[in-house]
Amino acid sequence: MVSWTPPRGVTRGAAYGGGGLGMVGTLGALGYALIKLEAKLARRAVPPITAAPVADGRYGNSDGIPLRLVMLGDSGAAGFGAETPAETPGALLAGVLAEAGRSVTLEVLAVTGARSADLDGQITLALADRRARPDMAVVLIGANDVTHWNPPRRAAADLTAAVTRLRGAGVRVVVATCPDLGALGFVPQPLRAFGKVKSAQMAAAQALGVVAAGGVPVALGAQLGRQFGTDPAMFCPDRFHPSAKGYRAIVSAMLPAVRSAAGISEIDPATDAEADPEADPEAGRGVRLP
Among residues 74, 118, 180, 241, which one is catalytic? Predict the structure, then answer.
């Protein structure tokens, strides 16, 4: 595997929010329980989504040994809420890398509902075949830790251990930290502000741990919280998981870190429209080989 040193300064912007800290102690366990209940009620109000589309496969026509990409984490990493495999974050990332000239083999091991402690089992599967270990892991995790009242320090410790294990196996790691749960429009105030604060605390703790373990964090909450909070089209019908548009935004936020980890330099945006999943809804899909 190619030696890789994560870039410095990646924790900038990892934390967000700042308002509503005074209500955290007041709401406590009740706040968490209500947020979790609201999410369950919202999901019951629409036809259930049974599973995320399966996006595993090979992307790109380039010769040579393909880059092995594994998606780890929760429903966001699995693409729950997307309608087709091509709309999932794994397929979008693999497609963009393929457009940049890399052949990619994608394996999605993320599990809906997973928390940081569940990453260890996913990593065991990822590393099971020594002859086909991943070159890069993309991790999306944290939201379920917040909704299940898992303290940020404990969740961050589990995530740090996971990144440490992957880096020890020579895997380059990019982690999307906890999204902004204050962007959930169906959650009433002051619970939305409470969710925003707790999400920010989780993201900050995650970012510090990921950097210490040798990975690169991407602050989804800081970058996309406002967009998700003001545009209902960013969510699928359950109003909780991202839609195809939401996943394109997530992938766009992660692209600089993922490209760097893949050894691909940034491309001039003026000539890179086809590789930007936000520029064209059909972009980033690459060529799926049988």
Answer: 241
pLDDT of residue 284: 36
Tokens of 223: 């970058």
Q: What are 57's two structure tokens? A: 């496969």
Q: Are 234 and 193 in contact (CB under 8 A)?
A: no
Q: Which of 74, 75, 118, 252 is catalytic?
A: 75
Q: Are strands 57-59 and 104-108 parallel, antiparallel or unpaired?
A: antiparallel
Catalytic residue check, 241: yes
Q: Is 75 a catalytic residue?
A: yes
Query: Which residue has better confidence, 193 or 139?
Result: 139
Domain covering 22-46+57-262, topology: Rossmann fold (3.40.50)
Alpha helix positions (H), 178-285: 191-213, 220-230, 244-261
In whole angstroms, what is the distance from residue 247 CA to residue 232 CA?
Answer: 13
148 included as an active-site residue: no
Active-site annotation holder among 135, 145, 238, 276: 238
| Amino acid residing at 83 | E
The vertex-165 CA angle with 164 and 168, nearest 5°, equals 85
Cβ-based neighbours of 78, under 8 Å, separated by 6 or more: 52, 71, 88, 108, 110, 111, 112
Backbone angles phi, psi at 120, to 5 degrees: -60, -45
Query: How many helices (DSSP H) and strands (DSSP E) are in the chain?
Result: 9, 7
Quote the pLDDT of residue 278: 46
Alpha carbons 85 and 48: distance in angstroms, whole number: 18
Interacting residues of 206 by C-beta distance below 8 A, sequence separation 6+ = 14, 141, 142, 152, 155, 156, 159, 175, 177, 178, 217
Query: What was the pLDDT predicted at 12?
Result: 43
Domain map of the chain by residue range?
22-46+57-262
CA distance 117 to 127: 17
pTM (2 d.p.): 0.81
